[in-house]
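BACKBONE STRUCTURE TOKENS:
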Amino acid sequence: MPVRSSFRASYQKTKKRTQQKVREFLDRRPHRSFQRTRRRDYSRSLQLPGYVSFTLQVNKKVWRLRKTFLLLAAVYILLTVVLVGLGSQQAYSSLAETLRETGAEVFEGNWGQIGQAGLLFASLASSGLTGTLTEAQQIYAGLLVLLTWLTTVWILRHSLAGHTVKLRDALYNAGSPIVSTFLVGLVLAVQLLPLAIAIIGYAAASASGLLDGGIEAMLFWLTAGLLAVLSLYWITSTFVALVIVTLPGMYPLRALRSAGDIVVGRRLRILLRIVWMTAAVVVAWALILIPFILLDGGLKQLWPAIEPVPIIPTVLLALGTLSIIWTASYIYLLYRKVVEDDAQPA
């Protein structure tokens, strides 16, 4: 009898705690499935600078800390070369030669060189030059990306707090939440699965001629669009969670919950900022990499002896490193803007 009574009391306590958490969750999230949500229930303030203005603010902050960030990039590049390896110059040369042969009939004159460089840029940005990595190399690459992200956030957080920032301190102290960040990163990878399925489906449908027209093509684009929207809806809050999880004593699930609370009523506006950030990175890559591709081709035509020098693989690694640092800075400063807006009195 005492055992049954103890079990009943434990059950009632757990039930009340669960009901309390559900009520708190519903209070924080005004949306209900299959019910109309009125604007007054979900409209929230979000005063942010314009897209270009905020990007310039991020650039200004990164520029102020350029010495620290350049040292961080140098450390990351060195560790990547040692642990993962540099992109293959032979693979780049083969790709460039293939594009020159196939593009000779399409492009002419100077515009042809620019067109070939554009195609080469697209191939490099999509596939890279590292080939198939071993399991150990993949683990090292993932850890280095996480550590670069964490170190960037640590530097920005302490810099905005008015502290003197040294890269040595950042490298020693920034890695403490790496396990929590890794778990949130896994959640992000899972959330991108619908988008990956849509991309794989597009490749298969394009090869089979399903997209030539008709009801089948319409249904495919509708399904692919819904899968892409689902991934974008999920990852908006997860990007914010990647910053929140770096706070001392923060757990992954709590970070995901807090990020979800922050983006409620603002998801589309924050998503548009992330899309803008992605577009800015792509444009920056094009503006930097295409001239380097043209320069590399010209120099190696003048001096064939420097053909083995891995100019483009090195530029690719440097661009990738700087992109991680700039992206982490953008997301962190965006998160700070949202939190500051919440802190202002209504």
About this structure: The two ends are 55 Å apart (CA to CA). The chain is about 80% helix and 0% strand.
